[in-house]
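Q: Could you fold this chain for me?
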Amino acid sequence: MQPRKKTLLNDAQIEEAARLFGILAEPSRLRIIKLLMPGARTVGELVEELEMKQGSVSKQLGILHDAGLLGRERDGNFIRYALADPILEPLCKLVCDRIERVARSHAKAIGLRLK
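A: Sure. Below is the predicted structure, expressed as structure tokens.
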């Protein structure tokens, strides 16, 4: 019988990982993160690009900020939001790359060719 591998995360860390993935599971939050990848934006800029109501965008920004994923700073009369956690870009790239691989595999299986 082989020895059991030591668990890398304890239960509290697993709960925290689940909480983070839960926060990232909301599509509008992922859209906000995507828009913030190139740099900071104001709530107004995000509202315009997302075509969402200002209250909805502000709510999602608050959730992301409270989770420590976004930072914010005052710029005159505006507040600019930016990514605060460096893990967001590589994590999103990793997930998007997987989605692309799966899509290509499915397309190939049914005889489609993707660019």
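A (continued): The first strand starts at residue 41 and ends at 42.
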